[in-house]
Amino acid sequence: MKWLGLALWLLLCYGVAGLGARWTTPEIPGWYRTLMRPSFAPPNWIFGPVWTLLYTLMAVAVWRVSLTPPSTARTLGILLFLIQLALNLAWSQIFFKQHWIGAAFAEVLCLWAAIGGTILLFWRVSPLGGALLLPYIVWVSFASVLNGAYWRLNS
Question: Within 13 Å and on the Cβ side, how many CA atoms surround 68?
Answer without folding.
Answer: 21
